[in-house]
Amino acid sequence: MELLEGLQTRKSIRAYKPEAVPRELLTRILEAACWSPSWGNTQSWEAVVVAGGVVPRLTADLVAAVEQKEAPNPDVPMPAGFPDAQQHRYMACAAGLFGTMGIAREDKARRKAHMLNMTRAFGAPVIIYVLFSADLQVPYTMFDLGAITHGICLAAHAQGLGTCIEAQLALYPDLVRRHVPIPEGRKIVIGIALGYPDPEAPANAFRTEREPLEKWATWVD
Ligand SMILES: Cc1cc2nc3c(=O)[nH]c(=O)nc-3n(C[C@H](O)[C@H](O)[C@H](O)COP(=O)(O)O)c2cc1C
User: Fold this and answer.
1) How many Å apart are CA 14 and CA 117, to the nearest integer?
2) How far does residue 93's CA lie from ligand 1's centre (Å)?
3) In this predicted model, what pLDDT tens digit does every residue of 126-143 receive, in sequence order?
4) Is 183 among the domain residues?
5) pTM for the model
6) Distance between CA atoms of 213 and 200, rounded to whole angstroms?
7) Which CATH number do you get for residue 123?
């Protein structure tokens, strides 16, 4: 896949086939993604690849926490809100996804089912948790972690796999630690659902939009 085409055709995948992803393929993806840039080549990222029976056991506990309305306790604080422009795009994204899935605004039951499905990593057979050491300074470390996260998503896409970056999977890090050996002193920033996309699922027909260039880029020459 040509690089620009890959950048423009990657999108979040929110329904997966149950097929396992071969370890060699996952290895190839991570080995490609680690060529992402980082501050002074510090490579501050770490990853834990969760697959097999651990995924359903972990996500069952995460779903139970959501259902019981347990207070999230993420290792990295999550945004409490956005300024108007970002809030508008955020709402448009949710409305677009629910519209494509045929979920009405007032259909609380299906919205909740979607939220629980998100907590199940949309049925993905693999979750990659991206971690960093607690002794790193957060702001620019996030820059590096974002770069490798996108690298993983692009490399997966180039191999015919789908991904969805999910803050939802990082809401209850203590539960994750119960199922996954997260090394001491590491913080969990995000989970990436990964697997073979289900082409029939309505959710996967959704495509987000982007602002036109003149809205966010300025030229000086
Ligand atoms: C930091 C971050 C957290 C995200 N968390 C979630 C999530 O919890 N659930 C979800 O369905 N999508 C999540 N996404 C995916 C975004 O909604 C998606 O990337 C965005 O709408 C753009 O759409 P695209 O990925 O299809 O281009 C997250 C993305 C990022 C970068």
Assistant:
1) 9
2) 9
3) 999 999 999 999 999 999
4) yes
5) 0.98
6) 32
7) 3.40.109.10
